[in-house]
Design goal:
Elements: H1 30-61, H2 66-69, H3 99-128, H4 131-134, H5 136-154, H6 158-177, H7 179-196, H8 199-212, H9 217-227, H10 229-244, H11 248-261, H12 266-296, H13 300-347, H14 351-364, H15 369-393, H16 401-415, H17 422-438, E1 442-447, E2 453-456, E3 460-463, E4 467-472, E5 475-482, E6 489-495, E7 504-505
Parallel strand pairs: 1-7
Antiparallel strand pairs: 1-4, 2-3, 2-5, 5-6
Helix pairs in contact: 3-5, 3-6, 5-6, 7-8, 7-9, 8-9, 10-11, 10-12, 11-12, 12-13, 13-14, 14-15, 15-16, 15-17, 16-17
Length: 512
């Protein structure tokens, strides 16, 4: 069994110094001689035991021979990877080796085994990560140091063995600690190779990265993309050929097929964007040409539609300018139509329609001076027209002097309009006739019972009578009758030119 499987046995501290030489006076008695002889044999036994401790026990506790218990350095077992193993311990110390020297050798041997254990742990970890595949040179160099340590160990040069084991451990630790940087380097190399279209290099770089870290998404994704690189390149080449032949729609389809295989492949994405821009540009140019042709032919609605379609296709400033031209000419056409309609309405003295047309024209162009003047003229004439119409249809409103004076002023303004149309002339004549009629008194017959006192407002008290005839101006009147012991009565009547008026009866007949 290995020496570290037992507690180390320390040599016993034995005092074997001889006593001082005896004198004759000190010769022991026979009994004492027998005791001394027994002590001598005991002392001899102790000396033999000490010799066994120092010279025999180390051999008994030494590890089994390499042929029976340990494989050669670098050998493997079913459950443990190849690793440097401790060499056969040295033969038992020579009888001349002191206990102190033996203890020192034991410490050096233990240090070597500790260093070996640390190296083996790193070696196993790196073999699990397949470092002997993706870092074979560095891994083999570290293993060689371990084998050098084994050789030194077999020769009992434990200090040298420890140094070699530690150098090997340092090399493996450096290899392990450098894994992130190595992984990044391989990933970057894979990206560069993929971008350059070098499929073999990309597969190698991403494959090594995936071996270093199988769960790395960037490595597995890169490997998958690299496997399709030949198909991507074929579709890109096909698209370029189609572009050269002027088959832009077909080229765009080829680039889209490539992006279906790998949506993130930049060459196909850039090529598709370029060919789509070219297709869009051609469509925009066609729309612009059609727009200007329609503009020249006076088909303004068609021109506007073409320029509007050209703008999202990249027509830019030119398309917007064409659209402005089309819309300006359409506005001018619209204004011309509205102004002509307003003028026709004025000639027909249809001031309401004329006003609406002028206001519509101003909605198209608020700064249009002719429409603004026409609007004001139409408003004035419409107000005059409506006022004159009311004089003819509502003559009762001229029943007082104030209203008749206002009507006189209105007629004066209407008569001042130059070149009045037939409608205005007829309205003026009708209004004048209405004013004359409203200033001509009309006869009215009043009847009573001779006992009722009659009063006509705006005329005065008429007293009692049985019959009376008055001449009154056209208008609305109220007559009131009063009689002692009877309830008052109130009678309203109107006088209108051309209308017959029945006799007005005012008498109190209801007693209180």
């Amino acid at each position: 069994m290995p020496d570290h499987d037992f507690d180390r046995i320390q040599p016993a501290a034995l005092d074997i110094a001889q006593p001082a030489s005896t004198t004759a006076s000190q010769v022991p008695l026979p009994q004492e001689r027998n005791s001394s002889l027994g002590a001598f044999w005991v002392l001899g036994a102790l000396l033999l035991l000490a010799a066994g401790v120092f010279f025999v026990l180390p051999d008994l506790l030494a590890p089994p021979s390499t042929a029976a218990a340990a494989a050669a350095p670098g050998s493997t077992t079913p459950d443990r990877p190849a690793a440097p193993t401790a060499a056969k311990p040295p033969a038992a110390a020579s009888p001349a080796q002191s206990p102190w020297e033996q203890a020192q050798a034991d410490r050096e041997r233990a240090a070597a085994k500790t260093a070996l254990d640390a190296l083996l742990a790193l070696q196993y970890e790196l073999q699990e990560r397949k470092a002997d595949t993706w870092a074979k040179a560095e891994f083999d160099a570290a293993t060689a140091l371990a084998q050098q340590g084994d050789a030194a160990y077999r020769e009992s040069r434990f200090t040298d063995a420890t140094a070699r084991y530690r150098e090997g451990e340092t090399a493996l630790r450096t290899l392990r600690d450098g894994i992130p940087a190595r992984l990044d380097t391989r990933l970057a190399a894979g990206d560069a190779a993929f971008a350059a279209g070098d499929q073999a290099a990309a597969l190698a770089a991403f494959g090594e990265a995936a071996t270093i870290e199988p769960a790395n998404t960037r490595a597995t994704t890169g490997l998958e993309r690299a496997r399709k690189l030949d198909q991507l390149a074929a579709r890109l080449a096909s698209g370029k050929t189609q572009e050269s032949a002027g088959q832009f729609e077909e080229a765009a389809a080829s680039y889209r097929e490539a992006l279906t295989l790998d949506n993130g492949w930049e060459p196909a994405r850039q090529a598709l964007a370029a060919v789509e821009a070219r297709i869009t540009g051609e469509r925009s140019a066609a729309r612009m040409s059609a727009g200007y042709a329609a503009l020249a032919a006076g088909r303004l609605e068609d021109a506007r539609r073409e320029f509007q379609a050209a703008i999202p296709l990249g027509g830019g400033t030119a398309a917007r300018e064409g659209l402005q031209q089309a819309e300006f000419q359409m506005a001018q056409q619209r204004i011309g139509t509205l102004l002509r309609s307003a003028e026709d309405a004025e000639r027909a003295e249809d001031w309401k329609r004329a006003l609406a047309q002028y206001e519509s024209a101003l909605a198209v162009d608020p700064a249009l001076g002719s429409a603004s003047i026409g609007r004001d003229r139409a408003r004035t004439r419409l107000a005059l027209d409506e006022a004159l119409s009311r004089l003819a249809t509502e003559p009762g409103k001229l029943a007082n002097d104030t209203a008749r004076k206002a009507a006189d002023k209105l007629l004066t303004s209407a008569a001042a309009i130059p070149e009045p149309g037939p409608r205005l002339a007829g309205q003026i004549a009708a209004a004048r006739q209405t004013l004359v009629s409203m200033r001509t008194e009309l006869p009215v017959q009043l009847r009573s019972d001779g006992k009722t006192d009659v009063i006509v407002f705006r005329v005065g008290s008429l007293g009692t009578f049985t019959g009376k005839e008055l001449s009154l101006m056209p208008g609305d009147y109220v007559a009131v009758g009063r009689r002692d012991g009877f309830r008052d009565v109130r009678v309203e009547f109107s006088l209108r030119p051309g209308q017959a008026t029945a006799a007005v009866v005012v008498q109190c007949g209801q007693k209180i």
